[in-house]
Each structure stands twice: as C-alpha cells, then as structure tokens.
Amino acid sequence: MSTEQDPAKNIGVPLGEADYVFLLPNKPILPLKSMEEGLVAEYVSELINLNGNHWRKILTIMSKLTVPKLEDWRQWRDEMLSGNVTIIFDAEQLKLITGITFIVGNGFRDEIVIADEATTLGQRHVAFLTPNYIWCPYLDYRQFPNVLIDELRHSINNIPENACFKP
C-alpha cells in the first residue's frame, strides 16, 4: 500500500468529541485509507504496520490508560480512535479540546508549563496531573512503566485495577 504524510490535524474522533486527547511530538506515517467506521481496527493495524513496533507500544499504552475495563485493552486499542480518543500533534489544537489531555514527552513543556498545583505521580518515572492536563513521559515502557499507568488510571477515574505484570 502506498503511504504519505497525511495533513490531517488529528487521528481519531473529532476534537470536540474526545474524552481523552494525546498531544504527541511526532506524527506517524498515516495510512492512505480513511478511518471510516467499521474499518478502524484495519486502520490501526495498518498504522502499526507502517510505523513498526514503536507505534504498537504507543497505542498499547494509550489503550491501557483509556480503556474502561483493563482486561479489554487489546480490543480497545483497535477501537479507541473511533470511541473517545484522539491524537493531536500541535499545541494550538488544545483550544478546541474539552477532554482530559495527555501532554506527552518534554517537547511541549515550554509551551504548556506544568501548573504549580499539579499533583506528582510516580517515583522514578513521573507524571503531573491537574483536572484537565496530564504531563507524562513519552509513551514507551522504558519511560512509562505499568506502575505509572496504574497510578494514572486510579487518579483519573478512581479505577483500582492493576496493570502491573499483566501481558
């Protein structure tokens, strides 16, 4: 399949409809096909095929953070972009967002300064939490371990499930 860098502003549900938004520093190569309803799993699969294991890990962490029931994270990974999750790549888009926003990595911290009242979660790897924004490490297990996923799930939704040591 032929690919190109898609000029789309976001991947997933429209910005105003997202419960969860991930502001990422780098845009992946996107599939040429659109993410039409019913084809989302195929789109996610193609997104992973085009961008490798790295994007599978990114989407897996996103899934574990946003899935209603943790045991369903695998299926949710293929459905979340049509459910209530969107990915953006430009901080200017934050003006259009009402959902919980994950500001991923350190690249945006000069633009979106961590609020003084933010709660710090984690020990070695940390995230900073306010009611609307979560400043978090890059979505890679070396920087964003399951222990931090657990703490964020609990803090965001008061979900007691534990992601640690689950496949």
Keywords for this structure?
disordered N terminus; two-stranded antiparallel sheet; single chain; 4 helices; 7-stranded mixed β-sheet; 167 residues; alpha/beta
Question: What is the topology?
Answer:
Blueprint: E1 3-4, E2 10-12, E3 20-23, E4 30-31, H1 40-51, H2 53-66, H3 73-83, E5 85-88, E6 100-104, E7 119-122, E8 126-129, E9 133-136, H4 146-157
Parallel strand pairs: 3-5, 3-6, 6-9
Antiparallel strand pairs: 1-4, 2-5, 7-8, 8-9
Largest sheet composition: 7 strands, mixed
**CA-based gyration radius:** 15 Å
Shape: globular
Strand order of the largest sheet: 2-5-3-6-9-8-7
Number of strands: 9
Number of helices: 4
N/C terminus separation: 31 Å
Unreliable stretches (pLDDT < 50, length at least 5) are: 1-7
Whole-number average pLDDT?
A: 84
- Helical coverage, percent range: 25-40%
Derived structural class: alpha/beta
Portion in strands: 15-25%
Q: Secondary-structure element order, as H and E? A: EEEEHHHEEEEEH
How does this structure look, described?
The protein has 167 residues and is of the alpha/beta class. 29% of the residues lie in helices and 19% in strands. The chain has helices at residues 40-51, 53-66, 73-83, 146-157; strands spanning 3-4, 10-12, 20-23, 30-31, 85-88, 100-104, 119-122, 126-129, 133-136. The protein has a seven-stranded mixed beta sheet with strand order 2-5-3-6-9-8-7. β7 (119-122) and β8 form a beta hairpin. The protein is globular, with a radius of gyration of 15 Å. It starts with a strand and ends in a 10-residue tail after the last helix.
